[in-house]
Structure formats: C-alpha cells, structure tokens
Amino acid sequence: MADGHITYTEDNLTDAVIARIRPDADPRVAEVMTALIRHLHAFVKEVRLTPQEWEQGIAFLTELGRWCDDKRQEVILLSDVLGVSMLVDAIANRHDASVSDTTVLGPFHRENPPRMKNGDNLSPGAPGTPLEIDVTVCDQDGKPLEGAQVDIWHTSAEGYYDSQIGDGEAHFMRGRFVTGPDGRVHCFTICPASYPVPHDGPVGRVLAAMGRGPMRPTHVHFWIKKPGYRDLITHIFKDGDPYLHEDAVFGVKASLVTDWSDGKLTYQFRIPRQDAA
Amino acid sequence: MADGHITYTEDNLTDAVIARIRPDADPRVAEVMTALIRHLHAFVKEVRLTPQEWEQGIAFLTELGRWCDDKRQEVILLSDVLGVSMLVDAIANRHDASVSDTTVLGPFHRENPPRMKNGDNLSPGAPGTPLEIDVTVCDQDGKPLEGAQVDIWHTSAEGYYDSQIGDGEAHFMRGRFVTGPDGRVHCFTICPASYPVPHDGPVGRVLAAMGRGPMRPTHVHFWIKKPGYRDLITHIFKDGDPYLHEDAVFGVKASLVTDWSDGKLTYQFRIPRQDAA
User: What pTM, to 2 d.p., does this model score?
Assistant: First the structure.
C-alpha cells in the first residue's frame, strides 16, 4: 500500500467528484453539474442501488436514445411522464392570474401548417362530432391583440394526430391563423379524443411498472406568438374527460379545462408583454 | 374554468407525480421511482433549470444512447466519470480491511481470453518495459486458494487495449489463469500506460465543460472468481503515476496502489466467502 492516495468511499466520493470541477469552469455549468452530481449520488445512496439495478438503469438509458428518430422522442416522453417537463414549464412561466396558463408543447406541433382564415374548417371531411372553436387573443388587460399568429392542432376522433395517420405527410386537423383587430380566431373542426402516449417502448415499461396508464385527456393545442409578447404554448382541455385527473404527462391545469358540451370551445387567451415581470 | 381539477404547480407537482405510483406496484420499483422522482425534481428546482437547458439535457441523453454499440458504451462512461459506478461499487462491497478492495470493471474485459499457465508471457513480442506479475489469491485469513480463475488484462505501452488496435479481433495483453495449491499466478508482460477514456463524444464534452481531463492512471485489471467466494473485480495501480489523483473514473483506492519500480507487480488478493457479512 502506498501512502498519500485518496481512497474513495461512500462517504467522501460525492465531494471528491464535485471538487474535480475546475474553478475556471463556466459558473452555470459548475452550478448545474454540482447539483446534478449531489442529487444523483443522494439517490443512489438513499435506495442503496444494487449493481443489478445499476445495470438495468444503464440498459434503459441506452435503449432510450435508440428509440429516438424524426417521429419519436423517447427522452422527452420520459421527461413528460416523470413530470419534469411540466416542472420546467412551471419554473419558466411563473406569473400572476391575469395571464393564461401554459402547458407542454408535446411532440406533434409541425412547422408550416396550412394557412387559414376565420370561418375555415380545420378538418374538412373528417368523421367525428362537430366542434366550433372561437377564441380571442388579448393582452394582460383583456384588450384584443391584432396580428397574433395562432397555431391550432388536435387529434382525430380516434385519438391520432395527422403525422400518425397513413404516411404522416398530410397536414390536417391543424392550421395557422393571424388575428384581426378583434383578436379573434374562429373555425370549425371535429372533436378530438383522449389518447395514449406512445407506450410500446422503454418509457411504456416504466409506466407499467408504476401501475400507471398512458392516457392523455382530450385537448386542443394552441401556440400563440406575437412580437413584443411572450409566446403562449398551451392546451384547452374538455371538461368531463375521464382522464383529466390522470393525464400521463401532468399537463392539466384547472384554468385550461372548459365546457364543450354545446359543441363549442371558447376561450379568452391573455398573453403578457415580453418585458412583463 | 371548471372546478375540481387540480392545477400542477412547482409546489405540488413532485408529490402529485409520486402519488400516481399505484399501491400494487412492486415495492422496490415504488421505492426507487419515488426517490428518483424526488431527487430529479429537487435538482430541477434547485438550479431553476431553464427550458433551453432542459432542451440541451434532452439532446444530450438522446445522443448518449446513439453513441453506444458493441465497442462503445457511452452511458456507462457517463456513470463512471460522474462517480456513480464507483458509488454503486462502494455500496455493494462494504467490507472490513481483511479483504481486497474492488474497483470498476471498465469496458475492456473480454470473454474467453487466452488460457495461460504460470511462467507464460501475456504480450509476446510487444514493445515496452518488461513487467513481471506475481500475485497470490487467498481467503480472508490469508490462506492460499486453489482453483481460482484469474483474468488479467491491461493496455499496451501506448495506452491501448487489444480491442482498440487494428481490427480489434486479436487477443493479447490478456490471459486467464487458474491457481494451483499455492494460490499463485506468475507471468510476464510489458508495462501498461495511462490513457484517456473515450472523449470524442457527448461525455467528453461534459468533462471538458467541467474543466476535467480524461486520463486514467496506469493499472492492470484483475477479475478473480472462485466458487463459494465473492467475485473480486479490481485493478492494481502503479505508484508514482501522475494521474493517480485525477483518475477520470474515480477508481483509485490507496490499498490498490503498489510500487512497480523494480519491474515487478506483486500483490496478495484476499477474497471473502460468498456467505461472509
């Protein structure tokens, strides 16, 4: 045995790993890595992770990346079902009650959706219960905003997005509007459905192991952009949906649940100025 | 707004995600996932992870799995450089000072190495400083053990394992011995070198961001197996190596550092019975 060499143990290893971060590292990198190492080690110690469980974890993370491609993002899905995506959203979008709540973007937004104008139909010919969408984009004080870009997208009556149907190339059940002086977007479509998040991969196995279901309650997505204002990425949920209390990705907020029983989804969005606190 | 729907916030989301684990889930799954969710959320809240940083994290984890193949395991490498592998090892191998210390297996062990007998040369014709290896396998009381399988492997004088040279198919600088009644393994080889862990991928970027180097100090690997005894997976390190205090994977333990200055690596391994506390 030689003297002067540290022996890493359960008790000193965490500090030793953190101490290895050089003083000239970017301060934010140092802050994030220090917290990550501390929590990762605390987790391993708290559950006394066994070598077999560590191997399972390694295999899981390896498989996670391999499931990802243009149409599937299994790492985001993991973040969603563990509530991490909504937590990041909550931290980034703290605000008072005068602006609309945000929720997850999800993986089904597409760039360059069909351009539409008020009165158009998002889903011409699609089977399902008719739904009228009538929403207004306002500022924090309730004043209508002109020139806001509003992307709307949702599933079919069977719970599939356009990109999940056929070859996935056609754009429907989605559209892009620009508000006029009254801030209003008004269109026709069919009522979407609740649907499962993809659960045939490693994240599905984690959900099953926890005894959790993969369903998301019925919702319509909105992404509102206007120069000088903060982007609003959110959903409006359908009241009465049986999965509202067990959304697989924890995206539901009470302020985003509305009554569609008369075949109409109405909402007044309020978006804060970019420079708002 | 509809009543009766929970709104997930920074304050209640962690508990809500944990509460979703069903009572009939496997108790160990519930324990591990509860701790994982709590620490993951605590990390995100502590550093106030931004959406941009979250995106970087998602991209990093996605890339990690994509770097993995038969010859590269980037997820294990991440675990190694964050000290997690050695922490799991420390928890699994708590023992008193009468048995040998363990360290990481590393990715370069191969099944079916060349069978060797005492006096053989691990690296015939390989250039480098000669090294004689003379080790004994004993039980916890220092009594030599017959019939122990001893795998030995190490790098070339340039710091490459056989699988990293040429087409990687040839086996050299490695061998498998079985001890006789004196518990001894005695062979000849050349002195290995310090070397960098693979650092051309995502884990290399994390090391660089922390200002850390990728080097591992010079060592020879041993994996000792004997029925009725616990496996011993360890290295013996060369005293005086400049990287002993900054091993990229935190594998060094004082008891595993020995003086090779006379061209000889000697060691007495002591392995515990399977049923030892």
Answer: 0.89
